[in-house]
Amino acid sequence: MVSAGEISGDMHAAAVLKKVKEVNDSIQIFGMGSTALKEIGAEILIDPTKISTIGYIEALKNLKTHFKHLRQMKKLLRERKPDLVFLVDYSAFNMKLAKACSQEGIKAVNYFPPSAWVYNKRRASKMASYGTHIAAVFPMERDVYRQAGAEVTFVGHPLVDIVEVEKSEAEIKKDLKIDHQKPIITLFPGSRRGEIESLLPEMLKAVRKIKAKKPELEFLLSAADGIELEYLNSFINKFDLELKIIQKNNYQLMQISEFIISASGTTTLEASILNTPQIICYQAALTTYLLAKYLFKVQFVGLPNIIAGAEVVPELLQNDFEAEKIAELSLNWLNNKEELKKIKKELQTVRHKLGGGGAVKKTADLLLREGGLKNRG
């Protein structure tokens, strides 16, 4: 049985379970997920991806639906008694499901477990008490769960295998019809409309300020899957800017950029793996931010900084996220390339900490072992 509640979790779960089925194609997969899991033949009975949100307070709006889904999953657990439950991300929900697995005497493996290394280490102790086996993707995740007494296998992060660019900078610029002589900076304003609406206008103000000082620069805008070009152009047109929008070429854009200006999230980790400097931008509902900062005492928001345990790349959060500061940082880097070299060197350490690759296969092997599924079927 699989439990994945967001698009990214659905994709990570599908990648692992595809490997599992390559070893034993008689395994039946059912539960909660979305398109990627359906494509590998999983029986998806609940698809909660349309109600995914950012932040604690925002998630409360769909609380009734979340509890309905939890009741359905617990019922499936009791009725179908799977050999193993694969919990992927979706922390608050999957913690409750992990407890139900423990009560039913059913083994569970948690991939992308609750971020107890960021805040609330008690969550690691709870997962340990449920007997959930943790497939750790981050080194600090491995450490905090082991300290809590959980059984942990460090598999590393799957992005290490996924994030790569085979073409040269010249080839990429030619393919994308970009002037090979112009330095590039790319904007990554996020993958959700709410995120884009809070970040992109200020990013575009910064572009205008930077271009005034450095007219030779070319700015590009990365369009996330599912975000319409017309929607993004509606922002660009307000600022009277010429900005080329590029779809489905994120890694190539990172590779050719002097640096990127990005929403906080997976993009920042992908850029780190490619050794691309970045300015991390973040704005959330004030209540969400205050909870993270003061109640949970979160030191960093950006994954590269969390993994490094230090501010490797700058973070512009809440009131600090303004065009003037983005422009100031950008111009400083453009005028001082030594600073960019230093950041690139520190990002190599971040990549090293993510493991040596093979996370998907290691996780699939763990599921086969834990479920006793390797030699059956």
UniProtKB/TrEMBL annotation:
Coiled coil: none annotated. It is an enzyme of class 2 (transferase). It catalyses: a lipid X + a UDP-2-N,3-O-bis[(3R)-3-hydroxyacyl]-alpha-D-glucosamine = a lipid A disaccharide + UDP + H(+). One of its GO terms (molecular function) is phospholipid binding. It comes from the Bacteria. The keyword Lipid biosynthesis applies. One of its GO terms (biological process) is lipid A biosynthetic process. Keywords: Glycosyltransferase, Lipid A biosynthesis, Lipid biosynthesis, Lipid metabolism, Transferase. Pfam families: LpxB. GO terms for cellular component: membrane. Its EC number is 2.4.1.182. InterPro entries: Glyco_trans_19. Condensation of UDP-2,3-diacylglucosamine and 2,3-diacylglucosamine-1-phosphate to form lipid A disaccharide, a precursor of lipid A, a phosphorylated glycolipid that anchors the lipopolysaccharide to the outer membrane of the cell. PANTHER family: LIPID-A-DISACCHARIDE SYNTHASE (PTHR30372), LIPID-A-DISACCHARIDE SYNTHASE, MITOCHONDRIAL-RELATED (PTHR30372:SF4). This is Lipid-A-disaccharide synthase. It comes from Halanaerobium kushneri. The lineage of its organism: Bacteria, Bacillati, Bacillota, Clostridia, Halanaerobiales.
